[in-house]
Amino acid sequence: MKKLFTWYGVIAVLSLVLSYVFYGSRGLYGMTLGLGSTAFNFIAFRAAMYVVGKTIEETKRPDAAGVFGILALFIKLPIWCICAMIAQRAGGAVLNCFLVGLGLVYFAAIGWAQAKNR
């Protein structure tokens, strides 16, 4: 699994570099928005599901980290929507690179799920 996450990091950095090479600072801005907001979306969802699972398992109240995980679950969609609106208003390469960044994170999640099932 560690090797898989190393590859995800390499792909993320490579996509940031390529977006800057092909589209300049606007492409880098869009790719950063896309990768960052969607990665936060998945991390928040994963943290919240971990907290819910632990709470059901142990039948006790979640600690402070658990409360922050649940709060992150509720703010992840507004953060993602705000980043999408920023990319849309900026237009051009920003929106295109934002959507590519979003797609990269979703494909990474699919790859992670497939690797976990093996």
What can you tell me about this protein's structure?
The protein is 92% helix and 0% strand. With 118 residues, the chain is mostly helical. The model has no long low-confidence stretch (mean pLDDT 85). The termini are close together. It is built from 3 helices and no strands. The chain has one domain.
| Order of H and E elements | HHH
Q: What is the SS-derived class?
A: mainly alpha
* Relative helix content: over 70%
* Rg measurement, Å: 16 Å
Total domain modules = 1
Low-pLDDT stretches: none
Mean pLDDT: 85
The number of helices is 3
Distance between the termini: 11 Å
**Count the strands?**
0
Assess the beta-strand content as a share of residues: under 5%
Global outline: flat
Largest sheet: none
What secondary-structure arrangement, pairings included, does this model have?
Elements: H1 2-58, H2 64-90, H3 93-117
Helix pairs in contact: 1-2, 1-3, 2-3
List the defining traits of the structure above.
single chain, 118 residues, mainly alpha, 3 helices, 0% strand
Summarize this entry quickly.
The chain is mainly alpha-helical. The protein has helices at about 1-60, 65-90, 95-115.
